[in-house]
Amino acid sequence: MQDIVLGSHRIGDAHPPFIIAEMSGNHGQSLEKALAIVDAAAAAGCQALKIQTSTPAMLTLDSREPDFIVRGANDDWEGQSLYELYTTNHTPFEWHAPIFARAAELGMVGFSSPFSVEAIDFLETLGCPAYKIASFENNWPDLIRRAARTGKPVIISTGMASLAELERMVQIMREEGNDQVVLLKCTSTYPALPLNTNLRTIPHLRAMLGCHVGLSDHTMGTGVGVAATVLGATVLEKHLTIRRADGGPDSSFSMEPAEMKRLVDECRQAQQALGQVTYGPTTAEQKSLGFRRSIYVTQDIAAGERLTAENIRVIRPGHGLAPHHLEEVLGRPVRQALRRGTALTWDAL
């Protein structure tokens, strides 16, 4: 499977997971705080910083009819209308350019989740290098098609989608001549629990659809992200805030900077640890071979004397014959005198 190139970064099996810090509404309607989150993402070692491009009117109606009231999804959202929630959560369009510029200055890819075709049109004027389709939009073919037509990488969260729907998403991308697709296994609960994350879907989805697969993770902590890396996730997305105590619509399931740094470090270690199938001592283990057991002379032995369980033993260090040769050498005479502490070798017999 070919790598996907984003700026100076690569998404692929031979590379550490591409880690995206999702700002969402954690800026609290402050550009200064938004830029501080960009700085924190870079300091943590993230490769990308993602925002969201929408207005409340792009997403819903300004209505308090029962269908438009949030119930049971997240304590911080409870009782709000969708329009009120998205007003709190949205990132002003005039902030996009400075946020992307700060990300680029710090060596990160800055990009966005568009929530309408018009949002993609706007992002194209800023040279947005990639697009993320959120789980709640992944059943909207027109949005995926417009993103695909940019010719840029498109990352799609899979929350709530059936396999048939996922196949349709990938098919739309490929019909538009764009094979730069990454699917992110996602559980659309906020926060999510490890027990309903179902990470074994990652290698299955990759095999079924032949594309890169990662994780959009709403669980707390780093364990799920590390496990996803081991299962082949090439992209990880986590929400980032400066302090959960600051509050906000996404703060309760967002990482703080020190936690994000730990996630980046541990996922890179996990990817490095995968290595390749190998047996026998590695280059790094050569010096440790001396601490294995081998056959040694434990009493002085005269020339012609036979080897017995009293004058040889299997002990450390490992410079003599391997222990599995013990039965083979017992009872055999030695050709020269051997001192106690001598490693037994074939030329001594």
UniProtKB/TrEMBL annotation:
SUPFAM superfamilies (alphabetical): AFP III-like domain, Aldolase
TM ranges: none
Domain AFP-like: from-to ranges: 294-349
Gene3D superfamilies for this protein: Aldolase class I, Antifreeze-like/N-acetylneuraminic acid synthase C-terminal domain
Record-linked InterPro entries: AFP_Neu5c_C_sf (IPR036732), Aldolase_TIM (IPR013785), PseI-like (IPR051690), PseI/NeuA/B-like_N (IPR013132), Pseudaminic_synth_PseI (IPR020030), SAF (IPR013974), SAF_AFP_Neu5Ac (IPR006190), SAF_PseI/NeuA/NeuB (IPR057736)
One of the Pfam families matching this protein, by short name: NeuB
Signal peptide extent: none
Name listed for the protein in its UniProt record: Pseudaminic acid synthase
Organism the protein comes from: Hymenobacter fastidiosus
Gene: pseI
